[in-house]
From TrEMBL:
It comes from Methanomicrobium antiquum. It is found in: Cytoplasm. It catalyses: Mo-molybdopterin + GTP + H(+) = Mo-molybdopterin guanine dinucleotide + diphosphate. This is Probable molybdenum cofactor guanylyltransferase. Pfam families: NTP_transf_3. The keyword Amino-acid biosynthesis does not apply. Keywords: Cytoplasm, GTP-binding, Magnesium, Metal-binding, Molybdenum cofactor biosynthesis, Nucleotide-binding, Nucleotidyltransferase, Transferase. Its main location: cytoplasm. InterPro entries: MobA-like_NTP_Trfase (IPR025877), Molybde_CF_guanTrfase (IPR013482), Nucleotide-diphossugar_trans (IPR029044). GO terms for molecular function: GTP binding; metal ion binding; molybdenum cofactor guanylyltransferase activity.
Length: 201
């Protein structure tokens, strides 16, 4: 069984404390766009809010589990921790809520490639960016549980290092997402303006 975990907490300092999941593109909120896409690829969806009162913002959404951080203030990895505890799937797609163009075919490809690995993490190996995409990645729940249970202070980077990951060069996804729009993420209000101007398209 596959789970999708949407991380919706955090402080969004770079976006002036706004709720990034509620940003919109083409009249659709980011969270609605994500839910629409994830429903096609996973068997259950979990939204991880920052705390109980933040959970209330999502209660009208049908057919999803809503949980909040247990280890509060620990960033995205804390959100993952709470999401994993609630997940019934053995494999999961973890995604940030600030990604408006997440692509179903890309998610399916990441799930297909996991085989005996503990994670499939897209990575940029070129001049555009030199980074990995752990918040648009597929993980085996068991591997994350092991890390999270045995570490008092949580670090996404450390977690990723400690598991057996397949780092998938993003160029391998261009056949299904030529401009790699799936990885666009909106962290700053200026990014949102650029999105509205069509800069990312
Ligand atoms: N549940 C939960 N989600 C988080 C937490 N921190 C970040 N996120 C989510 O993880 C994703 C990536 O977050 P970042 O952009 O790194 O951090 P942020 O707090 O949203 O933004 P900045 O304050 O600008 O760094 C986003 O979808 C956030 O909503 C957290 O502590 N708990």
């Amino acid at each position: 069984m596959k789970s999708g975990i949407i991380l919706a907490g955090g402080e969004a300092k770079r976006a002036g404390g706004m709720e990034k999941y509620h940003f919109s593109y083409n009249g659709e909120t980011f969270i609605d766009r994500l839910l629409f896409t994830l429903k096609e690829s996973v068997d259950e969806i979990i939204i991880v809010a920052r705390d109980e009162s933040h959970c209330q913002r999502f209660v009208d959404i049908q057919g999803v589990k809503i949980v909040s951080d247990i280890r509060k203030g620990t960033g995205p990895v804390g959100g993952l921790h709470a999401g994993i505890k609630a997940a019934s799937g053995d494999t999961l797609f973890a995604v940030a809520c600030d990604m408006p163009f997440v692509n179903k075919n890309v998610i399916d490809r990441l799930f297909e490639l996991i085989n005996d690995y503990e994670a499939v993490i897209p990575c940029w190996n070129n001049s555009e960016k030199d980074m990995i995409e752990p918040l648009h990645a597929v993980y085996k729940k068991e591997a994350l549980e092991k890390y999270l249970a045995s570490h008092k202070s949580l670090s996404l980077r450390e977690m990723v290092k400690s598991i057996r990951s397949y780092y998938l060069n993003v160029d391998m996804l261009r056949d299904i997402d030529p401009k790699l729009m799936t990885f666009v993420n909106i962290n700053h209000l200026e990014d949102l303006e650029r999105l509205k101007m069509g800069d990312f398209l």
